[in-house]
Amino acid sequence: MEKVHEKPLSLYNGSLSVFRLGDLAVKITKVKKGSLNNDNLSPPTSLLVVSPIIPGTYPVLLFFHGFVLKPIWYKSLLQHISSHGYIVVAPQVLIFIIPTSPQNPTYSFKYFAFGLQFSSLVSQSEEVKKAAKVTEWLSKALESVLPEKVQPDLLQLAVSGHSRGGKIAFALALGYGIKFQALLGIDPVAGFSPSNRSAPKILKYIPRIFDQTVPVAVIGAGLSNQSANCIFPPFAPNGVNHSEFFNESKPPCCYFLAKNYGHTDMLDDRIAAIASWISKSGKGPKDLMRKAVGGIVVAFLEAKLGEKVDNLNAIVQEPSLAPIILDPVISVK
Fold first, then answer.
1. 163 is catalytic
2. Is residue 84 annotated as part of the catalytic site, yes or no?
3. Among 187, 249, 265, 281, the one annotated catalytic
4. Annotated catalytic residue, options 76, 83, 123, 163
5. Cα–Cα distance between 203 and 198 in angstroms, integer?
6. What string of H, E and C letters represents the secondary structure of 72-108?
7. What pTM does this model have?
8. pLDDT tens digits for 278-327?
9. Is 263 marked active-site?
């Protein structure tokens, strides 16, 4: 088998600025539910807010984490995006998992391992409702948790998510009438199989069926449909993963496949290393995966929120500019 090597960190020259950290220093703020003095201004759930500290007005990106993950575990990725001039708001929409019985109708996402069944404490439909409440909260109180003289531009609002959170982002953009300017799915997942999808069941298996009014970018992980071992199934199985989300998105839409990386390889190093025990992981440096994902997100936001299309066009036309192998790259206008 031919060996494929990613660009070593020491050799990657960052020929596109979006794949490097931006010029803006950023601040990470943890906002707990109920932590604000005014209950009416308190967020509906705990949040991680990553923002530039230089005074100014910045677009806002909502980011939803993956199954049983925490926003802080994406710290490096979110800092990368924010350093290019974006306020990133990452809610904690799912707290933990508990053993449960299959008879409980409020649980929609089940997982089997070592003879035990686990489910999320909150159904995904409830998670989407919570996500909608977070979106409503932005206009009420986001500014109050930002650095001094930093203001959000909520007319330039985008939504994104990883894994289960990617599906939340799509469900929010499709079903709640919220005016987003861009939608990004990072290895989104809709369930265990086409016959075992979690509610709301947004995948219809009809090309370009999504009735979205915003441009879409889907970033897939090439190894996410593979098992890490004989105990745990693939985290993004065929039929419910990135390719189907892209197939059902209306133009304009873009697709980028990180060919040699896995479902959790964009997480911070320590968490990605732990996750590799249960989720198929690539052999390349995880820092390069984060640079690639962060750079694609920034380039897409630049193009769709700021009409600066040069970086996105460059990646689409010449994928080798990225720090990892992107294959295929598809743009449908």
1. yes
2. no
3. 187
4. 163
5. 10
6. HHHHHHHHHHHCCCCEEEEECCCCCEEECCCCCCCCC
7. 0.89
8. 999 999 999 999 999 999 999 999 999 998 999 999 999 999 999 999 99
9. yes
